[in-house]
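Quarterly update from the structural biology core.
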Amino acid sequence: MIIDRYVLREIVKPLGGVCAVLVAIFVGYTLARYLTDAVDGVLPARTVFLLVLLRTAVAIEVLLPVTLFLSVVMGLGRLHTDYEMIALSASGVHPGRVTKVVLVLAGLTAVVAAGLSLFVRPWAYDESYRLRALAATEVDVARLEAGRFYERRRGDHVVFAERYDRTSGRMEGVFVHEADDDTVRVTYARQAFERIDPLTARRVLVALDGRNYRIRLGEGRDRILQFERVELPLKEEEVTPEYRRKAARTAELARSNDRSDLAELQWRLTVPVSTVLLALLGVPLSRTAPHRGRNARFGAAVLVYAAYYNAKVLAKTLVGNGTVGLVPGILWVDAVLAALVAATMWRQLRGTLWERP
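Predicted structure, tokenized:
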């Protein structure tokens, strides 16, 4: 048990550091992407933090298997570099015992990865799509730039202001275009400002001294209304984002007959399998000569994972467009990985004369 705990500790030690680095890189990339939208007024700044958290929750599903894989390579690689594996072998410790420790850790990690893939992934995608759909109906007045058109709902909602005084919050020369199925509403106001309704907490645009044009397409029944003050809502009450299979529940995907839905289902189901296989592959991949350094195989491990992940993404695309059948689907990628793991581990275990203690 002392040896098992020692090997386990050497694998777990780099686990937190590797995971933190990968998450930090992903958060930085995602934050830069959303901040650009926030600066341009496309995305309300208050939703950026939530979107980054949701996207990170989705990313952990992918980062967890690769983090464990790299930690196995780094942890066991250090034992090889510092001659500790040779010392364990001389003491009668069979390589299978180290593999058993890795397998137990990989099994526990696979349970967490399965929960993330089957439940957290669709929930996080659903929430992020809902927030983006809500942002598409909102106008962040505080981020408006004078002389620029701001488009929402694919052009159905457009806002423009000739001048904007951020100190007072007043806009001049305001143009608002809204379109429904058969009606176009155009509002022009000399001045406008944002107000929050104290009863409903809804954000409204108060337009002063202007005209409202309502055009009924195909009917010729148009209306022109001159006003001194009118309030226009800045967001809708209910938002229903369109169907996205990444946000669909796992049970819903299982009942679907769509090929792309089933490819998404296979992706989720194979996440815990790939977690275990990658961790086991890290055992033979960590073997290195002492003089080569503890991270000699790190670059090779990164290339192996990159090849595996890209092959799986490609397989998912091919299943979705019908190029590859649902059987084997994307499972052939994991089957190839399993064969590679079996071949390398069998060669390692067969090549030793050590006996189990």
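The two ends are 12 Å apart (CA to CA).
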